[in-house]
Amino acid sequence: MQEQGGGRVTRELREKAVEYYSQHDATGALEKLLNKMYIDSPEDMYGYMSEYFHTLSNDPTVSSIEAIELLDSNGDPSLSLTLHCIVNGVSKAVGTYAHDLNWPKNDGELKWSGSKSKPPSGTNPKDTKETKDKSKESKEAKALPVKEEEAVVEEAKKEEVEEKTKEASTPPYLETVNRLNVILSELDLKSQIELNAVINQDHGITLHPSSKAAVSRVAALSLAFLSNQPLFLSLNQSFNKSTTSSKTFSLPLPLFNVVAGGLGKLRIRGVYLLPSPSSSLMTGFKNIMNVYKEMGHTLSTKGPAPVSKSGAYYFSCDKPEMLMDLIKEASASAGVTLKDEVLAYLDVGGESMYDEDKRKYELSTGQWKTGDELVNVCISLTSAYPWIGGFIDPLHPNDIASWQSLKEQLNEQCLLMAENALLGLASATIVIQKDTKGEEEEGETESIDSLSIINSGFISSSHTKTLSECFDEADDLKGRVSHISLSSLQPSSSFTSDSLSFDVDLAVALGCKLIKVGAPTGVTAAMSISRLIQVQGQLESLKLLGPSSLLMIPVES
Exposure string (b/e) for 81-108, b if CB count within 10 Å is 16 or more? Predict the structure, then answer.
């Protein structure tokens, strides 16, 4: 030991040092290291020592979260987060994530959600002065000259304006990160469930949901990096309660949005194309891309083909058959065989076209259909176009009788799928009363769990959901539907590859069979396919790749 204060170390100091090193078994750890290093004979001795002790060091803890407000390619605000952790006793930047700020459009101000103490009687709640010893201050104020009293009032107003300006200068999503900096400080990063639980707690103030979701994701990315694991595996181990060492994963199949609703008389939300599960990811992507390009060529004969924000084509028509004919013609021109190589999914959006007063669906402007008539439309489409693989939200979530009728009439290889609208009734049991003619009347009842009707339930990777909320929603659905799928909402205007491909890893960890990736030409689609190919290779090397996802899941009768 070194000498202390110019003299020799004291016996007391030696005893404290021995006690300290014995407490941490430093000598034992050093002996093991030296023996192991001598046998391994590494070229980089100090790098070897660093890696060895890294396994013995404390778990990384949150140090701080750095937030920067940026603009995406559409000029909308986005939030870029960098997570700093204490790793091996040193604060390091371990993960960066860019998150879309999509909630709400008018953020307003952060406000206390807890109870507020009432101001003393006779005082103005807007006063920025402390109310302590108010009566004393009031007496002193009366004795002041008029000009001096006015100066005091003006100063108070000035302080109030400055305080409001200061609050307004910090957007709510940045203020949320500032508050989470304090709340999450020194929290163990490996405890992802605990970290998300802390984020979701009621802290007495309104926290911006998008910021909470962004912090949840940057923490997950950082943990995957520090544990040297693929993100999907780290997520699964952190959140999936049913995880076992023998668990395998399957790759979700990508759904590409090629037609968006919004133009013309037809009111359906859009059309998705799915490559065949038997094709490789790259081949399937190329097939979808070729069909998409031929659709653009056909539409451009009548002028420039308008596209949505995601890159899907707007197609003005008044019948769903016109959409199907467009895809059929484009596939033939591209040399792609429908059903064998590509399947189509109609995102009907029954809830948005349903009129509560008329109890009918406006499939096309001025064209009203009852639930039974809309079911017949869907059935006739599957007969005319056998390469339709399924329907997404074809009916209103409360029209359970029509959902049940459609399920019974669909062929076994056509999926009935639902987004969050129907899933809102997941815990409800619907009672249908029918007589022998099928007309509603009082009498015998039949209880139907709404989830038993559908094959696939979509969950969304919403910008306002933390990861624990995504996994809780998935756990609620598993066992009640044939499979779950992910509706990816990450925009193509994000900044980092980790941000763009995050939902792919999330879908794999959740056990999703399908994932929406936007239009074929979008950045999100390209990054998603690239990440799926990477994940496939990682699963194969880890021997965790399960059987191929079966697209054709029979509908139980």
Answer: bbbbbbbeeeeeebbbbbbbbbeeeeee
Q: What is the pLDDT of residue 128?
A: 41
Phi, psi of 499 (to 5 degrees): -65, -45
Structure tokens at 15: 């005893």
Output the six-digit token pair for 552. 């054709």
Distance set, CA 385 to CA 46, 274, 312, 439 (Å): 67, 15, 21, 31
- Residue 328, pLDDT score: 97
User: Residue 427 has which token pair?
Assistant: 């815990």
Q: Are strands 388-392 and 367-369 parallel, antiparallel or unpaired?
A: unpaired
Phi, psi at 338, each rounded to 5°: -65, 150
- Classify residue 472 by burial, with Cβ atoms within 10 Å: 0-12, 13-18, 19+: middle
Q: For 363-398, what is each residue's pLDDT tens digit?
A: 999 999 999 999 999 999 999 999 999 999 999 988
Q: What angle do CA 547, 549, 554 make, to 5 degrees?
A: 115
Q: How far apart are CA 121 and CA 125, in angstroms?
A: 10
**Which residues sit opposite 6 in a β-bridge?**
none
> Which domains are assigned to the chain?
11-54 (no CATH), 61-109+170-228 (3.30.390.10), 253-541 (3.20.20.120)
Say which residue the tokens 């209103």 belong to. 396
